[in-house]
Amino acid sequence: MTITASEREEFCESFAMVTPGMYELEAAMETLSDPGANDQVDAMKVAMNGGDRSHAYDCDLPSDEDLFTEYVERQVARQNGETE
């Protein structure tokens, strides 16, 4: 998926406003709902700590790159009227 520089800037700003830990908590909850998951203990620790993140998301951080890509894909899908 290709986005313009101005679209990226807008997505970066809105990505930074997402509550810290939301995506980590979402992933932990998915793991906990999977009875066959091997990493449920780690997921429980993340869930108990509210996502275990104290800083804002940053589209320019390598550690947030995958989360930002997923965020953009979700936003574009919503703009196009698609559902998850």
**Total strand segments:** 0
Helix % is: 55-70%
C-alpha geometry? globular
Please provide the ordered H/E string of secondary-structure elements: HHHH
Give the distance, in angstroms, between the N- and C-terminal Cα atoms: 17 Å
Number of helices: 4
Structural class: mainly alpha
**Which radius of gyration do the C-alpha atoms yield?**
14 Å
Describe the main β-sheet briefly.
none
The share of residues in extended strands comes to under 5%
Low-confidence stretches at least 5 residues in length (pLDDT < 50)?
Answer: none
Mean pLDDT: 91
Features of this protein?
84 residues; mainly alpha; 4 helices; globular
Sum this structure up briefly.
Helix content is about 55%, strand content about 0%. With about 80 residues, it is mainly alpha-helical. The protein has a domain at about 20-75.
SSE topology sketch:
Blueprint: H1 5-16, H2 22-32, H3 40-48, H4 65-79
